[in-house]
Design goal:
Domain RFX1-4/6/8-like BCD: 1-263
Order of helices and strands: HEEHHHHHHHHHHH
Oligomer: single chain
Organism: Cryptolaemus montrouzieri
Pfam families: BCD_RFX
Number of strands: 2
Strand content: under 5%
Radius of gyration: 23 Å
Strand order of the largest sheet: 1-2
InterPro entries: RFX-like, RFX1-4/6/8-like_BCD
Protein name: RFX1-4/6/8-like BCD domain-containing protein
Structural class: mainly alpha
Length: 286
């Protein structure tokens, strides 16, 4: 992973003070000419587009499946790598045009953010497996869930989020049934995908798709927080298990929405994150 820093420093000539026509040994383009090219807006746009594609491919290599176990040593290496990326790039591009530096940093920030989120999601997934495979814990969770005042939860969700009661009712029934069947993590993931697909289907092919997806995330978060609140007030014995499951499902739901929006807009998933990092600007070229 640390090789990336040296490659960046070499490419951006941070180890050279050469401002002549070429670096004699490697026949590189001079630093001054490189920076002149980087001042051109078309070059900056091209670099942004290529960076997003490249970083997305790197994510697929490093974290090909967010639910499958990853060795702890690799996870830590990826997280350390993500933590250092912005500093490495900033130092390597010292003296580069500010506009190009901004473009490069915004893309690498999105890359770093995605790596941290995906490794956290993977960690939660492995912790949740132990809960979902424990019959005693599942039985306790079902017992505690049946004590939740879902009428009150539905009323508040309906008022705040304008959620339809019949939809919430089906969601509760499906959740309890899936829990009762002691399904695997992969089966839960399939259920969550189906929930997202059904919720966003009315908006497919419409310009409001991204907004609808964000609204769905907010509604999901509010509804799940109300259920957790009720479990907390009742001092549910399985609160810890529910809290872990809720964290996992929230993160995985964000992951699913991110990919749904990317597919709908023709962007790579990392570009969806970039949109949030740089003040909700749109990047049609991604």
């Amino acid at each position: 992973f640390t090789t990336v820093e040296s490659l960046w420093r070499e490419f951006w000539r941070s180890q050279y003070n050469n401002n002549g026509d070429e670096c004699e040994e490697e026949k590189y383009l001079s630093k001054s000419k490189l920076f002149s090219l980087c001042s051109l807006e078309p070059v900056q746009d091209f670099m942004k587009h290529v960076d997003l594609l490249f970083y997305q491919n790197l994510i697929q290599v490093l974290v090909p499946d967010v639910l499958k176990p990853i060795p702890a040593t690799l996870t830590q290496s990826i997280r350390n790598f993500a933590k250092n990326l912005e500093n490495w790039l900033t130092h390597a591009m010292s003296g580069a045009p500010s506009a190009m530096l901004s473009v490069k940093l915004s893309a690498v920030s999105a890359f770093s953010s995605s790596l941290r989120r995906y490794t956290s999601l993977n960690h939660l997934a492995q912790a949740a497996r132990a809960v979902l495979h424990n019959t005693t814990q599942i039985s306790q969770m079902l017992a505690d869930l049946n004590r939740v005042d879902f009428n009150s939860v539905r009323e508040q969700a309906s008022w705040v989020c304008q959620c339809e009661n019949d939809i919430l009712g089906r969601f509760e029934s499906d959740f309890k049934l899936t829990l009762q069947q002691q399904n695997s993590l992969e089966q839960w993931a399939s259920w969550l995908k189906a929930v997202v697909k059904k919720a966003l289907k009315p908006y497919e092919g419409k310009p409001t798709f991204s907004k609808a997806a964000r609204q769905f995330l907010l509604k999901w978060s509010f509804y799940s927080s109300m259920v957790i609140r009720d479990l907390t007030l009742r001092s549910a014995a399985s609160f810890g298990s529910f809290h872990l499951i809720r964290l996992l499902y929230d993160e995985y739901m964000f992951y699913l929405i991110e990919h749904q929006v990317a597919e709908a807009t023709g962007c790579v998933p990392i570009a969806v994150i970039l949109e949030g990092i740089v003040s909700n600007l749109e990047y049609p070229e991604c």
